[in-house]
Predict the structure of Probable membrane transporter protein.
Amino acid sequence: SQIAANWPIIINLLAGSLIGAWFGAGWATRLRSETLYKVIAILLVAIAIVLVLGHDARAGDPLLTCVTQIIAGVVAGFMIGGVAALLGVAGGELLIPALVLLFGADIKLAGSLSLAVSLPTMLIGFSRYSRDQSFSVLGRNKGFVLIMAVGSVLGAFIGGYLLGIVPNEFLLPALAAILLISAYKVWQHK
């Protein structure tokens, strides 16, 4: 019921994220691999910074109101959709801080609202990638894709149970460190 009560926020962010996902996937298919790796590395560092600095925000008054909030929501949604499509992720690591800061949402509600925005955004990015030959690699690597899918579902299930156990003081810096290590490895990729 809380998610349904916040449908204007979902629509506001979707207005930008769906367009951003379409463009982000298009950019990813046109960039040279070396350039794409560098862009992804920079985005991973930026996401690590957002995680460390943005996730301790508390619910409260929204940063903006009225028309400026709507415009900022569409712009933030566009940027988040573009980044999500470029990285091939759902974008929650950017959506949650945006929901807390722009709209004053509680962190737990922001997590749920981010899922409502992420799924359609991912589907648009998926649709855009499918128009390119980008998915041919999936057909050649069905076993790997299946293992990753099963691992993702299992990880989400276990993560849901650990959510109340693992403190943010440990989890967020650990995730930021993983992102920074990944950024380094992607930057070095040839």
